[in-house]
Structure prediction request, 205 residues.
Amino acid sequence: MTAATLTIAQDVSLLRGFAAPTGPLVLAIESIAGRAPFRHLETRSGGRMSVAMTNCGPWGWHSDARGYRYVGRDPLTGECWPPLPLPFLALAAQAAALGGFPGFEPDACLVNRYVPGAQMGAHRDWDELDKRHPIVSISIGLPALFLWYGAQRQGRPIATLVEDGDVVVWGGSARAGYHGVRKLPPGEHPAAGSLRYNLTFRRAR
Ligand code: MD3
Ligand code: FE
Prediction:
């Protein structure tokens, strides 16, 4: 457990190495993907996202021609999403508290999987009911450049390298912030192989 909490922007905290070691998290992700497989969702405009996604917890984020929303069942299998592992919940709550948001109880965890070349364009997380809750992100595996645009989608973002075990917490004035992830460079990581994973914990309802 680390003590260093870095502020990237107002109400955006970076907890370096807070989720390390990530070996157990990778095993948990593989188990989740065994029940709710990774898939490439469709954007509203019909494109295919380069990041593969799945979910665990009561609610899962989904995207198709009908738009972006949280759903209680996996549209691929018709089953409920796999449960949120207790260690995930504890990690997210502790990180949120350190970032200034005590009492965070997420009901959704979006699991992203990046292969080299995958990227996430500038967007904001805006499908959650109550925007007073923060979002907690855990990076696993290959390092990536996080891009923080802030209140506006355009302009030059603040780029921060996030590495295995790093946790980002954002809420309050940063909750509406635009962000993205730069195209993943190739590499090899002991726990995650040639991949990067990201967990984002949200309060959907
Ligand atoms: C804070 N995921 O799933 S976490 C998402 O790494 C999503 O997969 C990203 O955005 C991922 O909706 C990133 C959010 C994030 C991104 C960039 C930041 C938070 C940031 C840059 C600075 C501070
Ligand atoms: Fe996001």
Notes: The CA atoms of residues 115 and 130 lie 32 Å apart. The chain has two helices and 13 strands.
